[in-house]
Amino acid sequence: MQKRLKLFFPKKSDYPNRLKILNHPNRSTVYHQLVEASASAYFETKGPARWLFRKRFEVALKYLQPLKPINNLLDAGTGIGFFLPSLSQAVKQVTALDYSKHTLRYAKKMCQKRKVKNIDFIHGDLLNLKLGNKKFDVITALSVLEHIPPQKLNQLMANFKKILQPGGYLIAGWPNEGNLLFKLAQQLEKRLMRPKVFKSIHDDKAKYKPLGHVSQSDQIYSAVTKVFKTVNYQFLPFSWLKFYSLGLFTR
Question: What domains are there in the chain, each with its CATH number?
Fold first, then answer.
């Protein structure tokens, strides 16, 4: 019987200076890339917002459970590495890729603090992958695809297919952009729970402009299912309250 995978989530204390930079919103590139990587969305929220954030990783881990053994996994758009401690227990070798040097540095420091060693960190662009002949059994892409322009989604899916082993899997999740209820909840959460962050990300003088959520849920789902077959697909938190989409797909 396979050992059940557990969700191991990083703490603020695992990161450089305990992520105190979040306490002082500013115009720096480092601050805005950390916000974009969801550092604020988890560590500065409570209740249902934080529960839903963790829930996506719990479901993704359940998708991963029956796929073992897994030799090589790509965590695409790893951010500050929320998923890495959990992935490390299930996979022989994890490749953590992100386009932001700052968030990648935080992810690396976190893994060093937690003594997670089977991770390779790569600074790179998902639309221009330079991984040589490397192939993966699984790709995870959680809260990444909504940042890809809709006209580039097909290119990204082609890139994923190219680096996946035959019969390999894609675990992908994205917020339901385009859903009016989701948009309302998103704006209320930022205004009420993180007003300083809301003000900062709308500061025209900030040194870094976040990518933002530029693709809608139906555009993402269409691009994914053009290339991959659906194994499992669900909405979070409930089937009737569709704030987040999460699926397991295969070549």
Answer: 30-125+135-250 (3.40.50.150)
